[in-house]
Amino acid sequence: VDLQNEFVLRDFGEALEFKEMGEWERWIPFHDRLDDIVIPNNQRLLKFFRDNNLVVTFGRIACLREDGLDRSPVQKSEGWNNMLMPVNSFSAQMIDELTPLEDEIVVNKTTDSVTTGTNYLTLLRFMGIETVVVTGIVTDQCVASTVRGLADDGLKVICVEDCCAAGSEELHNAELKIMNIIYCDVLSTDEVIDLIEKKL
After folding, report:
1. What would the mean pLDDT of 62-77 be, rounded to a whole number?
2. What angle do the packed helices 39-51 and 189-199 form, to 10 degrees?
3. Beta carbons within 8 Å of 179's beta carbon, 6+ residues apart
4. Alpha-carbon 72 to chain mean position
């Protein structure tokens, strides 16, 4: 979920805005976690899924119109959520380390949740998928909204804690504590790989 150039790169997008506003220092731990933990673990998990012919999908914030008219009111609002990322823009693309393959589904969303306002749940049903492994950013917003949307639709959900990040470690841990058991099982990358290997 949302591991896009806009949010991940240190020399582009939100990072430049934070630097201009003098807020960069507080975002360094977030970017360090992305670089040192989240991206490498996502790469491991992605390789494992691809090597075992498991379905891989991506959810990203991307409006279909250049002017962003199709965005939800939340994404049009001033402040934190005011994001304009047309679908073909550099901002909207998944980071190079996690580039989707040609046959992998990329869901474009104009809300926090990958399940809201998209055909994602329908696609999962068509493919016969009953369990979804969720990773991405940020834990307490788009990841949490996606996990809840999937759970509410009756899917089994696993949230991979070391494949996610939030604006602070406190927010990350708090959201995982709230979601665990009720909406999903919170597991590590190693635990997810071990669990799936036992079922293959």
Report:
1. 92
2. 10
3. 144, 147, 148, 159, 186
4. 18
